[in-house]
Amino acid sequence: MPDSPVPLDRQLWDLVYAHDAAWDRAARTAGLSAAQACLLDALTDGGRSMGELAELLLCDASNVTQLVARLEAGGLVARRADADDRRVKRVTITPAGRRVRRAVRRAFDFADERLGRLTEAERLRLSGLLGKLLAPPS
Amino acid sequence: MPDSPVPLDRQLWDLVYAHDAAWDRAARTAGLSAAQACLLDALTDGGRSMGELAELLLCDASNVTQLVARLEAGGLVARRADADDRRVKRVTITPAGRRVRRAVRRAFDFADERLGRLTEAERLRLSGLLGKLLAPPS
DNA sequence: TATTGTTATACTCTATAACTATA
DNA sequence: TATAGTTATAGAGTATAACAATA
Predict the structure, then answer these.
(1) Alpha-carbon dihedral angle through residues A49, A50, A53, A54, given to the nearest 10 degrees
(2) What sequence ranges are listed for the domain HTH marR-type (chains A, B) (predicted)?
């Protein structure tokens, strides 16, 4: 007899958990929390303001202050006042921060290891289906 | 010109976030944290021991003690010593807990609202693809 | 006055270590 | 002795409200 099929929403839960857990593990192997790794991952070459980071990370600005403070204490990011608008602080990644970020991204093998199992055609199909799931509610 | 395609792993991140955020919102509308809602969601009619809950929720037993304490303070669960092995505590859901749990599940509209957009054929395809992604690493 | 960011504070989640009660 | 659970404690993530500096 066939195995009872796993309901689709249960599969989605499992996917969410697997993806999340892979990121958490990757962050921890580099000595970061998942949230700190997200912040580091969100930095661009020009740096980002605290407000931009709050928006990207979908959290309060006061939270960003704390996350940045911890990363700064570890020497992974630097904070300096913007030249044009001195209210704005720009957060930039340090050379040490780049090394750690590379390590996190390399350790986050979900995309490589799991997505690598799909053929190109399957990827396209998955992409189309995810697009429908992610479309904003009508 | 076509929109530049969204990378598949970015789509996955978005899905993870959307799914997670939907659960978080559902829990909060019922006055619970996401973790508390997960615990409530994991309870069965016969109740579960603290240890079982720790295993299901993938966290330490001391954490379960705190989560249960908060839910118990709100009258949503009850804790009683097991008759056979008095070291074991069985956590059961109260009538009020059932009402709250129903509210959370109803508010968690992800499955209904997002998955409802797919045709049966698309669901089957998605299920197959998720199965490949979720298969344990070879 | 409005905006950017910080500080003070509080709550929750989470884990570790030491402890109690029971087996 | 071993197991189930609790307590004490600590660190991190998160938010709200009050505040400082700058525009």
Answers:
(1) -140
(2) 5-135
**A58: Cα within 13 Å, side-chain hemisphere:** 6
pLDDT, one tens digit per residue, over B94-127 is 999 999 999 999 999 888 889 999 999 999 999 9
pLDDT tens column, A109-133: 888 899 999 999 999 999 999 999 9
Q: Which residues are CB-neighbours of A12 under 8 A, at least 6 positions away?
A: B15, B19, B110, B111, B115, B130
Q: What's the CA gap between B116 and B135, in Å, rounded?
A: 25
Contact (CB<8Å) A12/B8 = no
**How many Å apart are CA A79 and CA B21, to the nearest integer?**
30
- Of the candidates B9, B19, B137, the residue with the CA atom closest to the CA atom of residue A8: B19
Give the three-state DSSP class for B73.
helix
CB B90 within 8 A of CB B49: yes
Query: Taking a C-beta distance cutoff of 8 angstroms, is the pair B134, A11 a contact?
Result: yes
Q: Determine whether the distance from the CB of A60 to the nearest atom of strand D is below 7 Å.
A: yes
Å from the A88 CA to the D3 C1': 56
A119 CB within 8 Å of a chain B CB: no
pLDDT > 90? residue A51: yes
* Contact state of B111 with A16 under an 8 Å Cβ cutoff: no
A61 in contact with B, Cβ within 8 Å:
no
Helix axes B50-57, B61-73, angle to 10 degrees: 110
Where do the domains of chain B lie, and which CATH numbers do they carry? 8-109 (1.10.10.10)
